[in-house]
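Predict the assembly for these two chains.
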Amino acid sequence: MSDGRLVLIADDDEDILALVRTIVERQGHEVMAARDGAEALALVVQRRPDLAVLDISMPELDGLQVLRRLRAESHTRDVPVVLLSARAQEADVALGFGTGADAYVRKPFSPRELADHVAQLLER
Amino acid sequence: MNAAGLRTMPLARVYLAAGLAATGLYFVVPWDSFGQALLYDAIGASSAVAVVVAARIHRPSTQLPWYLFGAGLLSFSLGDVLFNLYDQVWNREPPVPSVADAFYLAGYPFLTIGLLLLVLRLRSQERRVGLIDAALLTVAFGLCQWIFLMEDLVRGSASASEKIVALSYPAMDVVLLAALVFLALTPAWRTVAYRYLTASILLLLVADEIYGVSPDTYADASWLDAGWLLSYVLWGVAALSPSMRGLSEPKRSRDPRLTTLRLAVLAAALAAAPAILLVERATDGNIDAVAIAVGAVVLSGLVLLRLAGLIRSLDRLRGAERVARAEAESVRRQLADQNEQLREADRLKDEFVALISHDLRTPLTSIMGYLELTLEDGELSKRQSGYLEIVDRNAKRLLALVNDLLFVARLEAGELDLHPSKLDLAAVVRQTVSEAEPRAAASGITLTCEAEPVPPVSADRGRIFQLLDNLVSNAIKFTPEGGDVRVSVAQANGAVRLEVADTGIGVDADEQRRLFERFFRASTAAERQIPGTGLGLYIARAIVEAHGGSISVESEPGRGTSFRIDMPVEEAEVHA
């Protein structure tokens, strides 16, 4: 796994978390998984991820709040972030990009669609 | 001829003409002759017969008053016969009192009771007011009778029996007038029969009064007979008039009002006592202070009673108005509450739909994601792949339903926000068609696109694509294999016209205008179990109207359906 990278994934739904983990691991990357925003930030403190895939609706800190913290810290400022959300309104998407997301994927999503985003963002 | 036939005959007019002719004849035949006396008796008797016959023909709801009238008139007539017997057969002056007087005096109570019975058919409210008014006029008239006729008789030198009989006539006149006035103050006065009846009684009273004031001059004033004779005739005419039935019918009328007539009655009654006083003083100066004072007190009392009744009924009306106002206010408040509750329920429904739609996406994400992974793995048998493709298709349907519900919820919450840009509708049409091509091909349907160059419109690209995709998907869904779906875009009358036409199953005429209603599904769609939520066209219309456009449908069952959308173009673009 020479080009394996570290990807942080966070979702409060166990099944979706496993789905995302499968998609990312299939691409040969290492995964660290969190079930809420606070846990995600705790993991980031231990190891800086190369990419973060964050669900927006989570307990404790939601995905947008985690995104803001990442952008506020100098060593995580440049980590690409994919937001996942069941909120599909254009205003929600605009808010996601406005907060600093690099991609916004609406639930339900196609595994191929998410994989494309992950691959594209890690290539940069 | 039967009763029904007789009822339609102008009997009243025939009897009136005959009566007038007979009365005229009375003054032509030799005076004081036997023939003349016979004619007088015949006219009187005929009126009694006419009244009884009329009651049989017209069959009013109460017949008794009319039989009483018949009895009263017959009694008068018998009095006439006896009077004439003295004169013509026995050739002597009738004694005072005579048997004739007994019959004459017996007639008045019959007539009076008959009139009162008619009044009793009316409503109690009418009766009470009418009673007071009648009492007022009666007391006033009675006072006149007493002062000008009866008082002199009492003080006269005649024997007691003579006095009693002589006093009875004016007294009876008072009673009869009272009954007449009572009836006059009810709605009965509007009938023709009533007017004849009134004329008849007034003639009788006037003749009686003139006779009463100077009985000795009767021999010289033979024209007085005309009053009595015409009174007979008119009573008969009143009975024969078909409107006599109306006298027995209780009529609905408004609450008693203070009409001019009634005010005049009250004023005349109040003025009676002072007027009599003045007349007495001007004529002989022999004033009966006690009678006038008593009369004045009674009259004032009655007027007060009458006014009190009016004020009470006004109070009642005002009370009823207050109650009605309070009720209206409470109903209004109730309505406002209900409206508030409805709005709240509507808001909760929208919130609920939004929440459900959102929470349904999460499990759908897992279902659809893992399905795709499983299918990609390629380790399944062909049959298993086929099964999972069906699951996938239905998951997509479920997602479409969730999306539609969410869209409608937002639409109804007024949250449909458009992001318009300059849009080439021809390009959107081409994109829609190319994306729908595989689905059309899978269903064996030929999908064609006719896109002319059109001026750009200001529209939300995503929404217009949603709209067109919706219509094209519908067309494919409702068109049997081998059919055609044609999508076109062209310029028309300052608008861009989009058309989606199919050769599908069509929609019944009476269902066409309901197609755009929320959750409406055409019966043909339901019968063929073609899946759908009944939201697609509702959403389509909402999108079109949000852009200021219009959408219409033409369809023929079995032949096909065509949706036409006109999107407005900015003026500058049309001529550009």
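The beta strands of chain A are 6-10, 30-34, 51-55, 81-85, 103-106. The mean pLDDT of chain A is 91.
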